[in-house]
Amino acid sequence: MGCKQNKKESQSEMETAKTESEQNPIEETIFGEMPDGTKVKKFTLKNEAGMEVDVITYGGIITRWTAPDKQGNYEDIVLGFDRLEQYLDGSPYFGALIGRYGNRIAKGKFSLDGETYTLATNDGNNHLHGGEKGFDKVIWNAIPKNTGAGATLELTYTSEDGEEGYPGKLDVKVTYTLTNENELDIQYEAVTDKPTVVNLTQHSYFNLSGQLSKPVLDHEIYLNADTYLPVDGGLIPTGEFREVAGTPFDFKEPKSIGEEIEADNEQLDLGGGYDHCWVLNEGEEDFGLAASAYHPNTGRLLEVYTNEPGIQFYSGNFLDGTLPAKDGGAYGKRSGFCLETQHYPDSPNQANFPSVRLNPGETYSTRTMFRLSTKQ
Ligand code: BGC
């Protein structure tokens, strides 16, 4: 299986160093080299069940993540590339950490305390995923740790005052922990020295079939949301909170991605499919189940827990078969889906949305956990 093969590969790499403890070994190898010679490291987090998650220091990207199917076969369940150059050549944020701002800010402008800030417009007229060189394209400092909770990788990055147009020097820490219960727990933290805006997320594209270049239309999605945020032609929320009931956006009962994706619906037309933020229902717990995805053939079930108020469900509409897949095929339209936990897009410009402001002296702190299991 994929997992064994990869072990062989990484052992044969020249620059293998090991930071291992008996329980949850974390393997460290070199994934590639940046044009300026900086080495990009790869850490393989493992658990006792046999799950493996590869994370590289470029973009904090999850390049590989293995999970068992109902027969216990481990396969890779995330889209990505084998080589660093492919990420550098242009990746649609495969597996990456996103910052300073997940999703779009209209016209790349926002005001804070009377001052207007101008950001890159790298998606038509709008700003997307932190700009030209967001957190998905920087080198993170990585410290592997073995905590009681599992194999942990602590990633840190300092974004200088004014970077990509954002105010304040932002110190960011993202901690990935792989537990023995097949959970990847992600903790995001940030502090600033000036008032600023922050909205961090993780951009993994999942394909639970293990056949990474196959469409994901057969996956059944559940979203714990009564409303979603309709968008305009530039995929900026209009400000309305719209009921999902009676529309293709209703995932309160699990439904396959394909079931209504081609329905005659203006919002589906604007997104080219699903590419919207769902407003998560507030449950009794503050870290409740936000979403799940189930792949009937393999039995793989992915559950997403978060304390964020929203989740961007993106059905991989812009994938077009031009990028080579890890399995030898190509990443075609809708061959992966994303469940990006976050604050709502364009919040800095929308007074009715929960605030994304961070002040000096405060700590931005959010948590998202992806849990994998199987169902017969
Ligand atoms: C956005 C999409 C975008 C994709 C890749 C998603 O988070 O919602 O509109 O195409 O990221 O950039």
UniProtKB/TrEMBL annotation:
Residues 1-21 have a biased composition (Basic and acidic residues). It holds the Pfam family Aldose_epim. One of its GO terms (molecular function) is isomerase activity. Its EC number is 5.1.3.3. SUPFAM superfamilies: Galactose mutarotase-like (SSF74650). It catalyses: alpha-D-glucose = beta-D-glucose. Residues 1-26 are annotated as: Disordered. InterPro entries: Aldose_1-epimerase, Aldose_1/G6P_1-epimerase, Gal_mutarotase_sf_dom, Galactose_mutarotase-like, GH-type_carb-bd. Its cofactor is Ca(2+). Keywords: Calcium, Carbohydrate metabolism, Isomerase. Pathway: Carbohydrate metabolism; hexose metabolism. Belongs to the aldose epimerase family. NCBIfam families: PRK11055.1. Monomer. This is Aldose 1-epimerase. The lineage of its organism: Bacteria, Pseudomonadati, Bacteroidota, Flavobacteriia, Flavobacteriales.
